[in-house]
Amino acid sequence: MRSLIGKQAPLFKSPAVVNGKEIVSDFSLEQFIGNKYVVFFFYPMDFTFVCPTELHAFQEKLAEFEKRNVAVIGCSVDSEYSHFAWLSMDKNHGGIKGVTYPIVADFSKTIAENFGVLASDIDYDDEGNAYSVGDPVAFRGLFLIDKKGVIRHCVINDLPLGRNVDEALRMVDALQHFEEFGEVCPANWTKGKDAMKGTSEGVADYLSKH
């Protein structure tokens, strides 16, 4: 699948659990366009091992995202009822109780497919019967969506590889720095460090100081 960078994020309406306890039937990214940035991340499946570490890690940094006007949203191919049950389970039993950001249900797998993170393909046998090739779950994809609904950053990890939530925050900072000052962010840039003008002179000036 071709990269979604620079393109409008695929829109959807799907059930989700919000505030850790309320099921809504028509959650959509459209509500954030013009108002908020979005970090939209996929994880493979509820009631697994690496996944709760990621969901709790995003919750622990949620205030930092909110300070930056960013909505954090999770998604997997489970149903909203599975999400609700997992959200009701204590952390010390492998649950994600205490997570308050929305978790979208992609039971049809169409959201994961449209974002290019579905870990399986559909093939057909000699009799024309469809079957899944690969795991019918989502890779660990993360998409940073700006206030116009455009995808500005994405990273997709294989199933065993957990993400770095601080890196997601760093990318938000980099995007917002560029939008505010028009300066581009060099390798390993973090908020508060020097950026540079997106010209050959700006690059030379930056490199001369570092």
TrEMBL record:
The active site is at 51 (cysteine sulfenic acid (-soh) intermediate). GO terms for biological process: cell redox homeostasis; cellular response to stress; hydrogen peroxide catabolic process; response to oxidative stress. It comes from the Bacteria. Keywords: Cytoplasm, Disulfide bond, Oxidoreductase, Peroxidase, Redox-active center. InterPro entries: AhpC/TSA, Peroxiredoxin, Peroxiredoxin_AhpC-typ, Peroxiredoxin_C, Thioredoxin-like_sf, Thioredoxin_domain. PROSITE patterns: THIOREDOXIN_2 (PS51352). Pfam families: 1-cysPrx_C, AhpC-TSA. Residues 3-177 form the Thioredoxin domain. One of its GO terms (cellular component) is cytosol. Belongs to the peroxiredoxin family. AhpC/Prx1 subfamily. Thiol-specific peroxidase that catalyzes the reduction of hydrogen peroxide and organic hydroperoxides to water and alcohols, respectively. Plays a role in cell protection against oxidative stress by detoxifying peroxides. This is Thioredoxin peroxidase. It comes from Microbacter margulisiae.
